[in-house]
């Protein structure tokens, strides 16, 4: 395995021998805003070969000298076509305009609308932000995460559960990047809303499989979200006023076509209604979340660009001092795009990310505060070498320094004007992660495209810190796993000492064989390694669960995934269909003892088990991309199992997010150019749950007997939402554009079971009953007024 | 404690932000195969004999004026001892209750197991065979006066099987010096009210576990939400005054009897599990359903049976809530 890098280099060298050639390179931008366009197509008509722009809108094509017709295109935009006599390398940046404004003689070429067929990427979902805004959403808030949950292969434990699960992975197995900064909690209010303000987002892409070598660190998916760069042409103000949220985004050039900025803010104001509550405690409580996004984009010259972006979002809840909590992400990234040559694009990134969360109380002489955080600093160097139209090589080096603070608590008691303070903290844990990668996307002939690469990652837990020793080096007694094991000794590590290190290869492979113009088959394999673990023992993870690194007793988790898919387009690419199957094997997943004590525990390893798992499934999707009616219907048949020797007698059991059948229907219909109606319907099998096998009485309490973890299921989940979108004033023809979004979530007021639980009656403990908890038990209407000024 | 805070908070959060709905539903569950359940307490019933090594001159965690401390001791001295023994008679101290598991929706008291042979073993020697109380089927009484430091376990012939409990070392319990009603606002409640505060101390040496049980106006508080257990990791060797182990408001005029039991980690784990699986259920942030593991083994089948037998000292005391709120208001 250690020679794989060498083999890859030789392979690429073999395929890349070239003679005198010329390169055409540049950026493809949105003509309206100057934003770089991601995945725009640059096609050489004569060769029927082309490339896509990268995340920054850059492209490079190296060709034999000659005369070529080059087309720059992007779905929904007018194609620009130019005949170029390519004798030597040139730079050509183009700006594309919206197709609504297209002239009669210009025809949109449909060739790149078959992206799903021709791209070697598999199991990738690109989210169209315009579509996201039309999907009926809870309280009308355009929401990337909730939209993702309508895609095949993506599930959630239930409404009110934070995060999302991709192809059997837990929520911590998703690498969520916002302008290349990792985001640890993607949800506000325990999963009701995502942290991403759609007004500030340019592009979002979800990789469920076939994950490129440039991504790593998580087992199951990558959600790559790019913020808008800021309008380079003119001032633009967008916003919306809703019943419970408002948002405002301002973007403008500082120096036209040179420097631009965008700032965007969103805040909920549920708590404005609290003073109306009859309960005194609620009257003075706070409950809100906010997001602030900002970015400056400096186009220094043709070879250099600088992006400084930042995000700060928090959830704040204070029940009048009785409880308070706050959790949120802060991220910042500074990126420098540099062209070493017209074929070698580079991006250097410095990233800061901090996820902090706390629980506390401050009431009548008693103050308590528990807080935890995970902070990291990253430096990344990424390179793309556009060798020729048939080969695109990517390589890079990523380094991350982590500081895990699993928990520190302080309690203050004030009695008779004297304050006593108790403090307790779990040791902070530093760690370091590094990764090198090299990959190539290679077209072989006209039908076959391969993407192959290798990522080599390493991780070390480092000092200072204390690591506890256990008899036989086992923090869990294999003969009696529920019994607490006490440390027999401890080892103190100095600053920078390596406590434990890991490393290993992560091969990646994808292939696309285009059968004909309308169909292709794809296959992929990826191995992923994950060195950080979410430690949670609740049914649905909470934003205040802790993260721990791999170390002396926690091994890195591994996932191997293979996928196979058939893709077919119909009616001149108006319809896309796909069928994918996948199998994923997990190793070294962290699980926990029953009733594990996870908070403020310096010997957390004594509460944890390690197990394996598997996930497999079939995903079918039919998407209509053009016309007045657009949308998709998807079906997923899947199974997610965990197997831990100490749980369920060692028998496999379904994970909490295992949903056998999952059907989504998303439709949007433009009745007129200014009025649109949309609907979505979701159906899925109920989630696994544990039912009691009986009961016993003890100490006046009637308790359930549980033996078979997740051996039953809640009733099925289904929900219908509708929305309308009325363009009152067109922003293209008026200085101030207005539109009204309205709709209803859970239209037929389905009481979807979040959980079923078992409890005895307060009045008579001999009587035991089953209860169903539904998070949204009614229809939730909404109306939002959106505006756009420019 | 932190766990409780976390879950309570999460429940409150959900209650505030969503219009969630909980309703009783009908379900078909498979029939239960009956298995033995044990509930047993071996103790000395010397609730008011103070421990001889009482020494509160060390670190005092929550300062309290000497006058108030003296007042709480005086209240303890006025407590009518006879009545607490009658309360204890209601509670199964120094008894073993045997019953069986049943269908989850059986909705009847647990079937008692009569005619069992229950033997008390001390340091691996038979001490006594318990006699079944003919007036209370399934109840077997100890007569043995336990010895501090001795190891006890039970052997049981019942339901055609042979059962054994895991051994329990009998430890003495610190005395409960006072049970006070404190007019204050505790951190889990917003409004000012009387709250329970006990005076006791903790023996030096980490690893002790305590449970408190409450009778309010002669009624046992069985609501699992108020199960009160604590280990000494944070309070080792300390004297504790006005230590709120109940966490709920008291009503004016209430009489509160508190039992303080010194136990062990296994019992704590069992009680903790019992509480989590019965009180903290229903929210998205519950601990998932899990077996409640006791210390009774079915030797015949090699499987776990249910319930817990515990041996340990128990102290008790009583407190009285005044009939009116103090003029000074909160914070006394």
Structural features, described:
The complex is a heterodimer of chains A (790) and B (332). With 790 residues, chain A is mainly beta. In chain A, 4% of the residues lie in helices and 58% in strands. Chain B has a domain at 44-110 and 171-290 and 313-320. With 332 residues, chain B is of the alpha+beta class. In chain B, strand 11 (178-184) and strand 12 (193-201) form a beta hairpin. In chain B, the strands form four sheets. In chain B, strands 4, 5, 8, 9, 10, 18 and 19 form a seven-stranded antiparallel beta sheet that branches. Chain B has helices at residues 2-17, 66-77, 81-90, 265-278, and strands spanning 21-25, 36-42, 95-100, 117-122, 125-129, 131-132, 139-141, 151-158, 161-165, 168-169, 178-184, 193-201, 209-216, 219-220, 228-231, 239-243, 255-263, 296-298, 303-304, 306-311, 314-320. The longest helix of chain B has 16 residues, at 2-17. Chains A and B meet through helix 5, strand 24, strand 25, strand 26 and strand 27 of A and helix 1, strand 1, helix 4 and strand 20 of B.
Brief overview:
With 790 residues, chain A is mostly beta strands. Helix content of chain A is 4%, strand content 58%. Chain A is globular.
Could you list some keywords that capture this structure?
heterodimer; A: 790 residues; mainly beta; Immunoglobulin-like; Maltoporin, Chain A; 2 domains; 22-stranded antiparallel barrel; five-stranded mixed sheet; 5 helices; globular; B: 332 residues; alpha+beta; 4 helices; 16% helix
Runs of chain A with pLDDT <50, length 5+?
14-18, 101-111
Here the CATH topology of the largest domain in chain A equals Maltoporin, Chain A
What's the name of the CATH homologous superfamily of the largest domain in chain A? TonB-dependent receptor, beta-barrel domain
Mean pLDDT of chain A: 86
Strand content of chain A: over 45%
Kindly state the percentage of residues in helix of chain B: 10-25%
- Total individual domains of chain A: 2
Kindly provide the name of the CATH class of the largest domain in chain A.
Answer: Mainly Beta
Main interface pair?
Answer: A-B, 93 and 85 residues
Give the helix tally of chain B.
Answer: 4
- β content of chain B, as a range? 25-35%
Q: What structural class should be given to the helix and strand makeup of chain A? A: mainly beta
